């Protein structure tokens, strides 16, 4: 069995060594143009050339949850496309989203500014019941995030394509229930995959339906957000602020208004990082299962886009 590794912006050495250790019978190499034919590829945002040169791949393993960078590429219909299935990401995402929501509701950003200016003054606490949080996308990550928010006793709502039942979470499903979902939220967390259906879904119309003084946490993809609409809604007071881990252009150009906007907290696409050891263990386990002819979790439905 032969495996190729290629991930843009990532040193291949530790991944190749880790895959060799996890699959001692495999011949594992970093991909280079003209590489000998392989059975599996482990990738992040590969060039079209890799797929054109490797038409006999049985499966492509994406070392992230989102496959929006892979799906536009040409590849044989029979090649399985497998995304990371948690692999240590959901706990990071839960931490990140809870801190963003708590920082806003406990006004920790306001306290930070005040103490820096030498002020030791108390504010009347806000009630968490006044901050119902809606999680868009109740998949591997969204479900964990919704459960974590419940632990802090926030009212939690969730929205997905197919109907769900989650303990303590008021669930909505499909386009027909989107507006009712939004109206039931003051804080909105985006954990949707980026697909033609969800591109630009965070816009003036949808964000305008949140309860006034709303707050946005986008940890999914920059393409979900219409950036000018966010700026307008912040100016108008419909939204009180936003925490954005992802942007349409990463990093944004120096003149981008989000860098210095007082109501926007930016982080550099770091809310849930790929954990190399957990990912290698998961991918190796799936390769072994596929070789035994068993099904694996996390196979992407290309028609659905995630
Ligand atoms: P997932 O398991 O595939 O879950 C996707 C969820 O979105 C599912 O609940 C799905 O509904 C729902 N959904 C998809 N299309 C929809 C639509 N048109 N309308 C309503 N709901 C829709 O994905 P995941 O593992 O939770 O990851 C979610 C996304 O997070 C990834 O695609 C990636 O873009 C992003 N991400 C970001 C970071 C970061 O560091 N910022 C890290 C990891 C992942 P059904 O359940 O009905 O199918
Ligand atoms: C990161 O953004 C991922 O999709 O895993």
In words, what does this structure look like?
- With 306 residues, the chain is an alpha/beta fold.
- It folds into two domains: 104 residues, Rossmann fold; 177 residues, Rossmann fold (3-Layer(aba) Sandwich), CATH 3.40.50.720.
- The protein is elongated.
- The structure holds NADP nicotinamide-adenine-dinucleotide phosphate and glyoxylic acid.
CATH class type of the largest domain? Alpha Beta
Please give the largest β-sheet: 7 strands, parallel
Please give the count of helices.
9
The N- and C-terminal alpha carbons lie at a distance of 27 Å
Q: Give the topology string: H per helix, E per strand.
A: EHEEHEEHHEHEEHEHEHEEH
What is the topology, as strand order, of the major beta sheet? 8-7-6-9-10-11-12
The fold-level CATH name of the largest domain is Rossmann fold
Oligomeric state of this protein: single chain
Which features does this protein show?
single chain, 306 residues, alpha/beta, Rossmann fold, 2 domains, 7-stranded parallel β-sheet, 5-stranded parallel β-sheet, 12 strands, 30% helix, 18% strand, elongated, binds NADP nicotinamide-adenine-dinucleotide phosphate, binds glyoxylic acid
Briefly characterize the structure.
It is built from 9 helices and 12 strands. With 306 residues, it is α/β, with parallel strands linked by helices.
Q: Topology, please?
A:
Elements: E1 2-7, H1 12-22, E2 27-30, E3 40-44, H2 48-53, E4 59-62, E5 80-82, H3 89-105, H4 108-116, E6 133-136, H5 140-151, E7 156-160, E8 169-173, H6 178-183, E9 187-190, H7 204-207, E10 214-218, H8 227-236, E11 239-244, E12 264-266, H9 276-291
Helix pairs in contact: 1-9, 3-5
This protein binds NADP nicotinamide-adenine-dinucleotide phosphate and glyoxylic acid.
């Amino acid at each position: 069995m032969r495996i190729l590794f290629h991930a843009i912006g990532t040193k291949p050495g530790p991944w190749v060594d880790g895959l060799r250790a996890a699959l001692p019978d495999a011949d594992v190499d970093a991909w280079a143009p003209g590489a000998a034919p392989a059975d599996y590829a482990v990738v992040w945002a590969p060039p079209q050339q890799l797929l054109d040169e490797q038409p006999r791949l049985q499966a492509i393993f994406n070392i992230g949850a989102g496959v929006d960078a892979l799906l536009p590429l040409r590849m044989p219909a029979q090649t399985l496309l497998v995304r990371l299935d948690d692999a240590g990401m959901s706990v990071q995402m839960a931490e990140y989203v809870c801190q963003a929501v708590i920082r806003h509701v406990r006004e920790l950003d306001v306290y930070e500014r005040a103490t820096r200016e030498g002020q030791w003054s108390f504010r009347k606490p806000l009630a968490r019941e006044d901050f119902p949080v809606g999680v868009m996308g109740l998949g591997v990550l969204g479900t964990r995030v919704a459960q974590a928010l419940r632990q802090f006793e926030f009212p939690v709502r969730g929205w997905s394509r197919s109907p769900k039942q989650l303990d303590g979470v008021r669930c909505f499903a499909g386009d027909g229930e989107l507006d009712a979902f939004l109206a039931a939220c003051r804080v909105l967390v985006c954990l949707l995959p980026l697909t033609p259906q969800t591109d630009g879904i965070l816009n003036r119309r949808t964000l305008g339906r949140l309860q006034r003084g709303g707050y946005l946490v986008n940890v999914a993809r920059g393409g979900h957000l219409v950036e000018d609409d966010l700026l307008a809604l912040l100016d108008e007071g419909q939204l009180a602020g936003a925490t954005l881990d992802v942007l349409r252009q990463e990093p944004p150009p120096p003149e981008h208004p989000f860098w210095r906007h007082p109501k926007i907290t930016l982080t550099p696409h770091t809310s849930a990082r790929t954990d190399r050891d957990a990912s290698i263990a998961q991918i190796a386990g799936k390769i072994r299962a596929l070789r035994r002819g068993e099904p694996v979790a996390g196979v992407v439905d290309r028609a659905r886009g995630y």
